[in-house]
Fold each of these.
Amino acid sequence: MEQEGTERPARATDVPAPRHLRELGRDEALSLLATVPLGRVVFTQHALPAVRPVNHLVDGEDVIIRIHEGGALAALAGPVEGPGVVVAYEADAIDPDTHLGWSVVVTGYARPVTEAEAVDRYAALLRPWVGRPMTGTVRIRPDLVTGFRLDAAPPSVSPVPRG
């Protein structure tokens, strides 16, 4: 009996067609990131790496997330002065059957959003997925944007024999 959230093991006959890995440019990566509502923020908690799934939106080049007081991500809403907290943000859309899709990682500084107008606008656009009230908004300003796309490999062309 299969448990919820588990899948059958892959079989040799399940091997997908060849794929081509292509690096994404900054603009394309950020455009793709804006097409999905969920990602994972990587941050430091108790001097160790931690990862949390969060919903987001992309505003220009910035990734916006909302946080709640007392949660693991509350440290991202630290002091307004200074560069902020170094984080990575990752999102992807990869089909589990074909193994085609993309993945994007944004690395940069997270700082609290303090401008009242921006806080209100983000609150209206970015509804929480959890049943807790959100008490803060964080802007991740990317310094480094990387990504890749897995596309189906073009069919190989066999040389035509000369007679």
Note: Residues 116-125 form the longest helix (10 residues).
Amino acid sequence: MRLTPPTRIAAGLSADQRARLMSPAREVNVPAGTRLFKECGRADRFWIVRSGTVALDLHVPGRRAAVIESLGQGELVGCSWLFRPYSWHLGAETTTPVRAYEFDAQAVRMAMDADPAFGSAIGHWVAVVLAHRLHATRVRLLDLYAPYGSGSTVWSAPRRRSRSCPHPSTRSAT
């Protein structure tokens, strides 16, 4: 038996919650190679993939963007729409033609505020998606940087260099 990953909408929300979320959605077709959003841009919408693949990426000065994760059918593209200051922390680009449902973030936030149970369900689903992506990123970092066979469990993250558009969560207190 194959289980639906908890990050996909079918596993993250009940049928009633999915129907409520999907009611204002609009269907979009996006060609391969289309940038959906850039880091630090305004997070005013999000998508759920119907078919195709979207790569989440991170800007690397002087290099191509580093792909963090590839998203497919039933997966949420974009989480920053839910958190102030509604600014993208990553970028996203289609790697194949994509059919998706597109959502107006402000309309969804208003629906969440109007119905606390619905808002809680959406917030919980997005939290599960974020926790999964954080764990997947941690595993990839360990694969890249952990000394194989060393038995060392201590890993020190490299210092983060300032960027032209630092997010409030990454700024140091002054």
Note: Confidence is low (pLDDT under 50) at residues 154-162, 170-174.
Amino acid sequence: MNRTTMIAAALLASMLPGAVSAKAKTCPPTTIFTTDLAHLDGYRVFTGPDGDSAVAPLRIDARIVPLLKTGKKLGIIDLPKEGDRAGQIVIGAADVDLALHPAPYKEMFVLLGGSFTFKTAKVSIPMKPGSVLLFEDTDAKIGHGGRIGPCGYVSLSIKPAR
């Protein structure tokens, strides 16, 4: 068995049920995003003076904001804005109950990683990565809320075009 195969086998074994002791909570390493992420590094691709694509380093600083009235924090990375459209990567802390509230503005929420149980006064829907919510309940009397799962979540929040 070569080194790569041994590493892959160990990784697979660590993901099998019962492989982690009941004492330690382990979340799968599916993302680099954490609530203490200071910035996101990447590259800006643009048309250079010669008419070809050019690349320059890009750094997007994160900010930490209170998560409603839970005592927990959200990590937010504001993505570049174009016209009236904007987006954010939102990192939610683990095991947080979110009280029912109306949406502060219309937005599309795409769950990228982790888990979230979406709730209204009438429904409870477990969400998994790839699930989408389109929030339009800005004038709701009760609103929506939910519970962030045991490994937190990472979402993409997009303000739709008007």
Note: The chain has a mean pLDDT of 75.
Amino acid sequence: MSSMDKAEKVFGLGAESELTPPIRAFRTALMLGQKLRNEMDERLRSDGLTTQQAALITAVKAIGKPSLAEAAAALGSTHQNVAQIVAALQRKELLQVEPDPTDKRRKLLSATNHSASYWRERDAGDFAAVADWFADLSPAELETFCELSERVLARLDHA
């Protein structure tokens, strides 16, 4: 029995599910998120990184120089959890923490040059792996998948 067959049986997924559509959608999204995170964790493991750490670096680069609180909000995580991730990334020289020049109590995060070169070398392979994970979906299906997922995310943000 494949892992998908097991998941369908245990969580009531699949076309024959007796779950209400919202519960089936929730469980499907939960399983998909877990499987995708596990797959990326496996790709990053040899370099001693996690998907959560990569997500933090992505957020820091996108925001600019966020505070710890801003980075935690972007990840939808706690200040304490993000502080632990930051400490690990500092040890790996992928992230640096500096005092905010306008408020010395606040610390600002930024990606290092080492981080930039590290991701330049890995991005193509990681992007190809992600494309492969979604290869059974057509471009139109991927667009629909993103649009529908983004609508749910937007609703959750306003709940």
Note: The first helix runs from residue 3 to 11.
